[in-house]
Structures are given as structure tokens and as C-alpha cells.
Amino acid sequence: MRSIISDTKNKPIEVWATDLEPAAEAQVRNVAGLPFIHSHVALMADAHVGKGSTIGTVIATDGAILPAAVGVDIGCGMCALKLPFKVDQLGDLKALRHSIERSIPSGREGNRELTDRTAKAFSELGVPASCSADDRVVKNAALQLGSLGGGNHFIEICEDLAGQAWIMLHSGSRNIGLTLAEKHIDKAKGLMKERLIRLPDPDLAYFTEEMPEFKAYLDDLHWAQAYAKANRNEMLLRVLKDVSHHVFSDNRLMAEADQCFRVDCHHNYCQKEHHFGKDVWVTRKGAVSAQLGEFGIIPGSMGVKSFIVKGKGNPDSFHSCSHGAGRKMSRSQARKLFKESDLKKQTEGVECRKDRAVVDEIPGAYKNIDEVMANQTDLVEPVFQLKQVLCVKGG
Question: Does the model's pTM come out above 0.85?
Fold first, then answer.
């Protein structure tokens, strides 16, 4: 439940995390000391150390944006779709996993060529304001539309408590989001040096609204957020086709998709919102919008469980909630501590890779999702509880 960190120098920090590391608290104190923070900073139940600012932070700013707080995977988020049949109709899960892995490139890979659908989707996005259509990164982005990426990105088939099947996936703006973010983060850091602005951490470099760089960043930010959503949509359609052929030997699910319950939400992004009497920029760095009645997705680690939630519109969290369970140890720590045998044990009953390459995604490297959910009962109401039966991880 909520607690408050306050001192005389900084804006208050409202905290829903109960196991906050000292390094994460130091990071959020740095953020709370910035001159343009509006009202307070909100720290979600899954908060943990990030780059510059804590992952799981909601930052409301008056007339400024911190590009590194938004992060390098602009628009990263989740998508979930409830399928019109029970999980027990799926049959051979290993065959389905391999089918999905063939359909969706992972790691750094993209598609070899554009389909008519991806070409149309990318054309509708246009080109980032700071790029040209001939730029290599733009051409690569077109080929990466509908690709998973690596790290903690995933595609899952889940089962709810009624036995209903779901598709759930997690990805963002791929390499072009990273490229755009790094360009603007470097520019912000350069401006801080030019203007002799001292910061407690260089990754808290910012743009203010009167700077021309502010609009340039905002244009690329909006484009990358739209790309991330289009990327998730393309992946969802591919998984839906694979599931349809696997279960029914035809494409019937593609025609029924629009009638299925669906949720899509960013958790690394920034947008203008109204809070505590003012229009401000709200950056959710590893956090989900949870306005009153709004649906969101809070995934646990693979092999545990996840939740589809409905927001309660709590003003103290800037209408936000956690974006997952949250890591309790770094990837390098997890690789040192756990072995493949641990991964196999902790993902028992889930059809997934169980090799050394994904040991850092073992459930034991994450916080307890039940505790995270218990700490934010004033922010969201669980609507569906999902259990993974199949998981595809990016290499």
C-alpha cells in the first residue's frame, strides 16, 4: 500500500513498492529534486533500479520532458486477446510454439521482405521527423515491423481461471526506437553541458518547451509510440493466424478477431494529461495508465501468472499502476545464480525454451507478482488471472 518519502528539498514521493532498493530510492529522490516536477513523483509496486530513473516511476513534469526517463524502447508495452475457445483445444503446444517462432523474427532479426499488410501499416506511419525514407534505420524499421526483439519481450498463450485461451505479447519500437531515443538523449545531455546545468545524474538531462529540441523529440516520440503499437498488432495477427491453423486448419480466427476482447497498453511512454489542476507531461517509465474503468495488463514472469486489470483512477498515482512483477536482480546476477535445471523446474508445465540463453528470464529473478498486486489494490481491480501454457522468448 501507499507510503510517502518526503524531505524539505524535493517534491514528495508516493510509493507503492514495499521492497525498494536503496539505489532505486536514490534515483527517485534525484528525480523528485528536479525544478519542474509537478505535485509529486509516484513509484509503482514493481519499482526497481533503471538507467537514470527508477523503472516503475510516474513522472509528471510542467513544461519539460526527460528523454532517458521515457527510455530507449519508446512505446514498449503489452497486448492481449481473449480467444473464443478453451486451452484444451490447442493440442500439441510444442508444434504451436515452433510455428510462432517461424512466423515472428526474434532477437535482432527482422523480416526478409515486406508483406502487403506490413508495407501498408508502415506506409501509414510515415517517416520519423528526424529521418528520411532512404535512411538505413528507416528501411530496417519497415522490415522489423512484426518482430519480437529480445530480453524480456515475449509471446504467450495463456489460460484464464475459466480455461479460456488468450494470446498475450510484449514488445516495443525495436531498433528504430532505440536509435531515435539515443539521438535525443545525447542531444539533451549536450544541451545541459552547453548551458552549464548541473544534474545529479547525466541521464536526467531534459528539454523544456521553449527549446526547439523539445518539439523535435516530441515528434519522434509520437512516431515511435505509434510504431510500437503497430508492431504489436502485426505480431498479434501472425500469432492469431498460427493458432487458427493449428486448432481449426483454416483462417477463421482472423475474421473473428474484431469481436474478441482485446487490451493494448504502452508502459514506456509520455503524453499530455491533466492532473492536480494543470496540464502536464506524464512519463510512465515502466508503468501503465490506470484511469477509472481503463483496462491494462500486468504480466508476471514466465511460468507464474499475469493479470488483466481495470483501473480505479487513483489521482495519487497519476492514474497509473505497475507494468509487471519487476526484476529483483539484474540479468548478470540471475545468470550467475541460476542454472538450466532451475529454469526447467521453475517453468514446469510451460512449453518454452529452457536453455542457458534465457536463464536470466527465470521467474526467480523477478518479484512475487502476488505481493505486487496486493500492494496496488487501490490502483487496479483484477478482472482476469492468466497462467502461461506456452511462452516464446526472444533470443
Answer: yes
